[in-house]
Amino acid sequence: MSIKKSLILAIGVCCFISPGISRAESSDIIPSEKTAQYATTTGWKEVDGKWYYYKDGVMQTGWQSLQGAWYYFNASGAMQTGWQQINETWYYFHSSGTMQTGWQQIEGNWYYLNPISDGSLGAMRTGWQSIEGAWYYFNSSGAMHKGWLTLNGQTYYLDYDGTMVKGWKYVDKKRKWYEFNTSGQQVKKYGWQVLNNKHVFYDFGDAGLYTNKWYFIDNKTYEFDVNGYWVENSFDNTTLGELEQALLKYFKENGITYKVGTQEYEMYLIDQLLEHKDEKLARHPKYTKILTYAAEYLHERNKGQSLPKSPSVAKSTEGNENAIFSMGHVANKTIKDIKEETDKEDSVDIVEEKMIQKSPETKESPTVQRAYYYYNPNAAVNYALKWAISRNGAYDDRSGSGGDCTNFVSQALYAGGMMMNLPGEISTSSRYVTDGGWFSRRFESSVPTYRVSSSWINVEMFYSYWAPRSTMVTKTWSPMQVYYGSSPGDVIQYQYAGGGRKWHSLMVTGKNTSKRTIYISQHSGDRKNEDYGNIDKDYNGDSQWIILKLTN
Q1: Which residue intervals correspond to the Cell wall-binding repeats (predicted)?
Q2: What is the pLDDT along the chain (552 residues), one digit of tens a residue?
């Protein structure tokens, strides 16, 4: 339709015939002596930037048809341009003064001006209009509507070109299928239904069919495929290597040049997990499993297996063999393997949580007490706000090495008074990443070097270290529970349903009781005190929240 509109617009503009007359002398009112000169003439006259038309020496007003085009002159005789309301009807006149008809794009909006000579030629249309066999809706200002529309209790969807949708429509922003009858009204069903002999689930909120995502229903997670059908065998033998190849094939087909191991590749995966930014990929038949791969990639990349690199080293594999990373060592790991691995880790978490409930002490020495005994959440929040969109040179930057999110959260906790825990003597001869403890060390030299614990930088390891030291650990799919269960200074992590891998950490840096929302700050998709509803696009889907309650 956009081509059709452009052509009509071009035709409308080309119909202008230039008045082609000389300028008059400047005057607010046409002088009598000048008027006399036009007593026997017909044509255009410009006075102070306004155009007038004379016929046999008489200045014309109102509607005038000139050389096949319509013009309108007000009571003073001045030619009108732009939007004009005449006898309670709106018309649009080109800068040349010609009345426009048909499709017109004006200041970014599309309008439809009656092209038929039926007594209302050029009149701006509003409401429902049938144009060349398709239905469109124009609001009270005449602008064509796109997207969702609710009228008289019925819901409609107007496509990107304004046409009313009938039948099934996939909406990228929602990642759902919606059904509309022949009148364009949405067919509303809710909950579990059978479609084409397969189970589907309609959202109780907007009656959309969940598609290519995980959804939490009655204390259980379910996977739905690209057509919205429930996937009964989610954790199959698809390997990470196969999923990586599927993603790289998609890149090639769509002109995406990111390479495995680069910061650009990493941020692409993070953006998909957080926001499903590439909406075309979100319709890939293997999308839910590609997200499993993405979570595993971040986990493996942030184990610190690569050699240390300074902040000055480019976050790319180009020209830096030490920074090269691949998933070859886990290429044969299956979705089923990952699920079994994370289930085993979760079972250990449950045992430890029960132990903490019985005793206020941790398994370590009495000097390492539970977090709230010495934690200053205000100091942690202030640090997070200061460094949310920049980097502190006292610490290594993990961007491009699995993400800097947990590294950033660890820094904030340390600023809030959480004590580092060194498992022994740490020096430049130590491994870059050490298992055990919780620490980060910078060593000065011509090029600063760093040594860290896996719990300082890796999401899973951070959880394993801090969950037993938290006053409470809550896993939830409810955004309201996140609001009620967290406070500034607490940490929130994301755990992907398609495999169970924890893949992201952030800090709560604010709370708004009137809006019932929290504000978060994070690295790897840097955000500073932003409403978490603007970050996480999929409430009740794909990843659950884990609240590590560190405040009183």
Answers
A1: 60-79, 80-99, 100-119, 125-144, 145-164
A2: 444 444 343 434 444 333 332 333 333 333 333 343 444 589 999 999 999 999 999 999 999 999 999 999 999 999 999 999 999 999 999 999 999 999 999 999 999 999 999 999 999 999 999 999 999 999 999 999 999 999 999 999 999 999 999 999 999 989 999 999 999 999 999 999 999 999 999 999 999 999 999 998 988 999 999 999 999 999 999 999 999 999 999 999 999 999 999 999 999 999 999 989 999 999 999 999 999 999 999 999 988 654 444 333 334 333 343 457 999 999 999 999 999 999 988 766 554 554 444 444 333 333 334 444 589 999 999 999 999 999 999 999 999 999 999 999 999 999 999 999 998 888 888 888 888 999 999 998 888 899 999 999 999 999 999 999 999 999 998 889 999 999 999 999 999 999 999 999 999 999 999 999 999 999 999 999 999 877 655 554 689 999 999 998
Domains along the sequence of the chain with CATH: 2-125 (2.10.270.10), 298-552 (no CATH)
Q: Which residues, in sequence order, are bridge partners of residue 102?
A: 113
Cα–Cα distance, 31 to 51 (Å, whole number) = 15
What whole-number distance in Å separates Cα of residue 452 and Cα of residue 433? 5
Angle between helices 287-301 and 263-275 (to 10 degrees): 130
Report the alpha-carbon angle 236-238-240, nearest 5: 130
Distance in angstroms between the alpha carbons of the first and the last residue of the chain: 59
| C-alpha distances in Å from residue 216, one per residue of 210, 220, 502, 543 | 11, 6, 17, 9
Question: d(Cα 293, Cα 270) in Å, to the nearest integer?
Answer: 11
Q: Measured over all CA atoms, what is the biggest interatomic distance in the chain, rounded to whole angstroms?
A: 109
Closest Cα to residue 59, out of 84, 41, 85? 41
Do 123 and 130 touch, CB atoms closer than 8 A? no
Does residue 7 sit in helix, strand or coil?
helix
Sign of the CA dihedral running 141, 146, 149, 151? positive
**Residue 206 to residue 154: CA distance in whole angstroms:** 12
Count CA atoms within 13 Å of residue 269 on its CB side. 32
Task: Name the nearest CA neighbour of 495 among 453, 521, 467, 518.
Answer: 467
d(CA 163, CA 157): 8
Crossing angle of helices 287-301 and 335-358, in 10° steps, is 60
d(CA 540, CA 217): 9
193's enclosing H/E stretch is strand 191-195
Q: Please answer whether residues 488 and 467 qualify as being in contact, where contact means their C-beta atoms are separated by less than 8 angstroms.
A: no
SS3 105: strand
Task: Kindly state the helix (H) or strand (E) to which residue 463 belongs, with its residue range.
Answer: helix 459-466
Q: State whether residue 467 is helix, strand or coil.
A: helix
Contact partners, residue 475, CB within 8 Å, separation at least 6:
495, 544, 545, 546, 547
